[in-house]
């Protein structure tokens, strides 16, 4: 790196440039984060009521062309493009693109006595962390991102959401947090370990390889935790 002389003019120019860069970075970081919106502002604007929630919104997630909202009561509603079942409506019909559809939008079927405590959205798949620590994902499964040991999409056919099983996270393992990339998913488990599955073309699963995981028989049961280092555990993902 070239060292500039420490004269006042150069220092001033560098400082101003640095401030401009930092401000631009801050502005861009606020504008280009499509995954999460401000639930508080949506609550104050009455948005929860417009989509049929009688309670306030706890979390907002957006995928590539779909959006999902989690209410404080643990219900999830999704709308937008539904080509792969990412809305969890047992169909591929888009929702929210016609008159009065939002008022009639039903909650995702998470299972009997199941509510969500968190949600995550990838490009074309959606996941929910449930009240019992299990995780369910639906939508596009081209790389195993749903963690179902196959590449079959889910949520795009009649009765699929009611039949959707939880992901195999391992014996006595439950999730405390979840996150979704474009085509992969990660979970922080109750023992502080992290497991990831789905597309791995660039090593995004942290498995020291580029092989996808979760797309073949038995892979989720055999899925190991990401190596975070000796005596290291995660507190967030």
Automatic annotation (TrEMBL):
It holds the Pfam family RCC1_2. GO terms for molecular function: guanyl-nucleotide exchange factor activity. InterPro entries: Ran_GTPase-activating, RCC1/BLIP-II, Reg_chr_condens. SUPFAM superfamilies: RCC1/BLIP-II (SSF50985). One of its GO terms (cellular component) is cytoplasm. This is Uncharacterized protein.
């Amino acid at each position: 790196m070239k060292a500039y002389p420490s004269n006042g003019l150069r220092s001033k120019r560098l400082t101003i440039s640095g401030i401009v860069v930092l401000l631009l970075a801050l502005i861009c970081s606020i504008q280009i984060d499509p995954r999460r919106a401000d639930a508080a502002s949506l609550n104050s604007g009455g948005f929860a009521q417009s989509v049929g929630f009688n309670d306030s919104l706890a979390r907002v997630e957006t995928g590539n062309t779909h959006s999902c909202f989690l209410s404080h009561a643990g219900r999830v509603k999704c709308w937008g493009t539904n080509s792969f079942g990412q809305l969890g409506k047992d169909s591929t019909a888009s929702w929210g693109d016609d008159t009065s559809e939002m008022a009639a939008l039903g909650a995702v079927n998470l299972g009997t006595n199941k509510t969500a405590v968190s949600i995550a959205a990838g490009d074309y798949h959606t996941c929910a962390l449930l009240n019992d620590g299990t995780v369910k994902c639906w939508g596009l499964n081209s790389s195993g991102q749903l963690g179902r040991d196959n590449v079959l999409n889910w949520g795009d056919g009649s009765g699929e959401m009611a039949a959707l099983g939880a992901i195999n996270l391992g014996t006595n393992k439950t999730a405390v947090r979840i996150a979704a990339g474009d085509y992969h998913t990660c979970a922080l488990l109750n023992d502080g370990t992290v497991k990831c599955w789905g597309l791995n073309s660039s090593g995004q699963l942290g498995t020291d390889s580029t092989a996808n995981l979760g797309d073949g028989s038995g892979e989720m049961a055999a899925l190991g935790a990401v190596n975070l280092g000796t005596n290291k555990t995660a507190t967030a993902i």
